[in-house]
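Mods, move this if it's the wrong board.
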Amino acid sequence: MGFTMAPLLMHSDSVPPAAREALKQAYLGPQEHRDAHLESAARLLCRETELDCGEARELLGLPDGSCG
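Not the wrong board. Structure tokens:
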């Protein structure tokens, strides 16, 4: 994983609450579940904001992929 905005986004009121919660779980929960929570946050950002999937994944430091 490269540079990520996730730790900052989990405190932003501009981020939907469900995505903030997924980000908090990613960074405060067990390491082995981090990727799953980041994937969830990317899907939520894509679905609930004007970000497309690639932008959401890039912000969270995830590799190219689907937000399906």
